[in-house]
Amino acid sequence: MTGAPSSCADLRIALFSGNYNYVRDGANQALNRLVGYLLRQGAAVRVYAPVVEEPAFPPTGDLVGVPSFAIPTRAEYRIPLGLFGRVKADLAAFAPNVVHVSSPDPAAHRAVSWARGHGLPVLASVHTRFETYLRYYNLAALEPVMVAMLRRFYRRCDALVAPSESMAQVLREQRMNYDIDIWSRGVDREIFHPGRRDMAWRQGLGVADDEVVIGFFSRLVMEKGLDVFSDAIDELNRRGVKHRVLVVGDGPAREWFAGRLPQALFTGFLGGGELARAVASMDVLFFPSVTETFGNVTLEAMACRLPVVVSEATGSESLVDHGRSGRMIRPGAIRQFADALQGYVENPALRAEHGAAGEARSLDFSWDRINQTVADTYLRLIRQRASRG
Fold first, then answer.
1. Across 88-111, average pLDDT
2. Glycosyltransferase subfamily 4-like N-terminal domain location, by residue (predicted)?
3. How many Cα neighbours within 13 Å face the side chain of 382?
4. Cα–Cα distance for residue pair 214/284, rounded to 1 Å
5. pLDDT recorded at residue 26
6. How far is the CA of 28 from the CAs of 13, 20, 47, 62, 149, in angstroms?
7. Which is nearest to 279 in space by CA: 232, 216, 354?
8. Is the predicted pLDDT of residue 139 greater than 80, yes or no?
9. Is it the case that residue 379 has pLDDT exceeding 70?
10. Nearest residue to 122 (alpha-carbon basis) of 135, 113, 131
């Protein structure tokens, strides 16, 4: 390739991920969608990430396995190590013109060093607020240390992409980097829409048509706010507010969550149309997580015409219009969460009004337009690097 790149077809992207497809989550589904889009535009993409014998779903594009080890307390997740032997040789043979890192792990650190040594630009995508995870493992005192470590990593990159303007502002305030574009998230409207609502399916779970279902769907891990969810449901029960709880998802905290909410309905993991049917068959989403940088769960619920009750946190602030499409509550404010939920349970007209507003907002999120933003950022960084000689 000669001259400055002008289109996706000129791109050769080395993408490093700590979890590309071995456990399903919102971040890696966004990465796979991005790779699929880039490949359709003619770009060359090579993905470097840990691999396992039975991944959650097939990878999009070419995936090169990176040596890794299981996290001792969370064995389903793996930490990719540095660039060794065959991986480094494969990277050199691929000859990328831009490197994309998506998690601040050892392999990504080495990839940044490799790129800088070869005069290549590096883009980092921010998918989660890693520093907030420490709060759920009684390690909140170490949060400043984690922030400092993240700052060192992200400031070695040429630019960042964040999934929401609220998250970008947090990154600026933390002095992570000052070149930050928005790589938002989209919603598949062919899958998530109000027409998926299925009263017969609800009845099969033992839910009466006149019962109001408070729903939760996500990977079941403590950092999704399961404790806050449970406490708020307890408060509704103390008030005598009639409702049903429907939990969709699986994960290491499922047993804890089921023990905390013995009357709740647990479906286990659902995907695709089955997930959309379950979401559309809820009446309100309650998702108190503060670790999200965007809130795919919130957007998918909004697309299904559900009012949402969420924490005032990065991601949600860019999606939810408080008092119009849902309620945003101060993190951990149990009584206020319960107040918001009670309002929706007892007022069907309010549920309908806020659900319709949320669905209208969800129409703004087109995957192709969103992913082109990342491609444009790659091209800009390559041109800027070339102009500096």
1. 96
2. 25-190
3. 23
4. 5
5. 84
6. 16, 5, 12, 15, 23
7. 216
8. no
9. yes
10. 113
Question: What residues form DSSP beta bridges with 216?
Answer: 247
| Maximum distance among all Cα pairs of the chain, rounded to whole angstroms | 70
How far, in Å, CA of 36 to CA of 31, rounded?
Answer: 9
Give the number of other CB atoms < 10 A from CB of residue 388.
7
Q: What is the pTM of this model?
A: 0.72
123, two tokens? 């883009």
Check residue 236 and give its pLDDT: 98
pLDDT tens digits along 340-375: 999 999 999 999 999 999 999 998 888 888 999 999
What is the Cα–Cα distance from 29 to 271, expressed in whole angstroms? 12
Beta strand 68-71 pairing with 62-65? unpaired
| pLDDT above 70 as % of the chain | 94
CATH number of 194-362: 3.40.50.2000
Are 379 and 121 contacting, i.e. CB atoms less than 8 angstroms apart?
no
Report the alpha-carbon distance of residue 297 to residue 275 in Å, rounded.
11
Residue 183 dihedral angles phi and psi, to the nearest 5° = -110, 95
Residue 343 identity (one-letter amino acid): G
Spatial distance between the Cα atoms of 324 and 326, rounded to a whole number of angstroms? 6
Q: Is the per-residue pLDDT at 1 higher than 50? A: no
Is 138 a residue whose pLDDT tops 70?
no
Distance CA(306)–CA(309), nearest Å, equals 10
Confidence of residue 134 (pLDDT cuts 50, 70, 90): very low
pLDDT band at 270 (very low <50, low <70, confident <90, very high): very high
Radius of gyration of the chain (CA): 21
Two tokens, residue 162: 């964040």
Classified as helix, coil or strand, 299 is helix
Half-sphere exposure of 13 (CA within 13 A, CB side): 36
> Can you say how many angstroms the Cα of residue 381 is from the centroid of all Cα atoms in its chain?
25
Quote the tokens at residue 202: 């609800």
Q: What is the mean pLDDT of residues 332-346?
A: 97
* Residue ranges matching CATH 3.40.50.2000 in the chain: 8-186+366-387, 194-362
- Enter the DSSP assignment of 201: H
Q: Where are the beta strands (DSSP E) in 7-141?
A: 12-16, 44-49, 62-65, 68-71, 74-80, 98-101, 122-125
